[in-house]
């Protein structure tokens, strides 16, 4: 796992309003706004050309939400920093931003900036889910026609047969949804365990597929979304997407139909 930011433990969380590190570094703020490079931004800050709320800025200073930045008196409109988090969702957490749900994923993570989930895992499932503040990324990844891969490790309540594997692989008609699942990759890994790679995201799809064949899922863990892997992220914690991961994700999204660049590398 890289050294990107991890989620602090619940006891160690810092209230958002008291956390000066929740802002964006001034040189990055200027770069994201298209003013100049980071090196040039540092030069301008040293030269006293940059102010925050009318006060001369200093190197390393952060811009907090609501603050006004100016360069040589010209107000700079900031752009929201892209945030993509890889989160290891525990069982019992609900993938919603709805505050009425006491176990909602947004409050559980407690990230200092507004983020929301890309898709969902049902309450009793666990594993990788992405959190972001970029609506375009959500829309592109969730579009069913793009057939982005998601990989799961699954345990069921009794021994798996060859017939089970063959029928799961070919596609299962789900009466309650009125839809047949797409053919998928499935590999038996134990008497009651298998890995499965889906290219669609029907509601409770794996559980419904297994139930149709007379099996019940006892554990479901998502380990991969496209090129992004759960590897090394402890349950209940997150890390930020790495530069190379983001570049590869950008490439995969660019290969999808009707794409424009949704993630800046």
Automatic annotation (TrEMBL):
Q: What is its EC number?
A: 5.4.99.-
- Looking at the record, the residues that make up the RNA-binding S4 domain are 24-84
Class in the EC hierarchy, top level: isomerase
Q: Name one GO biological process term.
A: enzyme-directed rRNA pseudouridine synthesis
Record field: compositional bias (Basic and acidic residues): 1-16
GO terms for molecular function, please?
RNA binding; rRNA pseudouridine synthase activity
Q: Which domain of life is it from?
A: Bacteria
Q: Give the keywords, sorted.
A: Isomerase, RNA-binding
Where does the record place the region Disordered? 1-22
State if Isomerase is listed as a keyword: yes
SUPFAM superfamilies, sorted: Alpha-L RNA-binding motif, Pseudouridine synthase
Which family is annotated? Answer: Belongs to the pseudouridine synthase RsuA family.
NCBIfam families given for it?
pseudouridine synthase (TIGR00093)
User: What is the protein named?
Assistant: Pseudouridine synthase
Species, as recorded? Shuttleworthella satelles DSM 14600
């Amino acid at each position: 796992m890289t050294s990107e930011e991890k989620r602090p433990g619940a006891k160690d969380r810092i209230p958002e309003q008291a956390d000066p590190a929740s802002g964006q570094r001034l040189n990055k703020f200027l770069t994201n706004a298209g003013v100049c490079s980071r090196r040039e931004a540092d030069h301008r800050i040293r030269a006293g050309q940059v102010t925050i709320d009318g006060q001369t800025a200093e190197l390393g200073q952060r811009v907090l939400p609501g603050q006004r930045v100016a360069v040589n008196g010209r107000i700079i409109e900031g752009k929201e920093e892209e945030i993509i988090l890889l989160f290891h969702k525990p069982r019992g957490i609900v993938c919603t931003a709805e505050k009425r749900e006491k176990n909602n994923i947004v409050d559980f993570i407690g990230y200092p900036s507004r983020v929301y989930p890309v898709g969902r895992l049902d309450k009793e499932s666990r594993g990788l889910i992405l959190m972001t503040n970029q609506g375009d990324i959500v829309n592109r990844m969730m579009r069913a026609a793009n057939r982005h891969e998601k990989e799961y490790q699954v345990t069921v309540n009794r021994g798996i047969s060859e017939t089970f594997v063959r029928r799961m692989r070919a596609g299962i008609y789900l009466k309650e949804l009125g839809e047949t699942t797409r053919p998928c990759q499935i590999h038996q890994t134990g008497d009651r365990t298998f890995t499965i790679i889906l290219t669609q995201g029907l509601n409770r799809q794996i559980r419904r597929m297994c139930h149709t064949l007379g099996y019940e899922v006892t554990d479901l863990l998502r380990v991969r979304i496209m090129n992004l892997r759960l590897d090394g992220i402890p349950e209940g914690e997150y890390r930020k997407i790495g530069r190379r991961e983001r570049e590869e994700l950008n490439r995969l999204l660019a290969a999808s139909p009707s794409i424009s660049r949704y993630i800046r590398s």
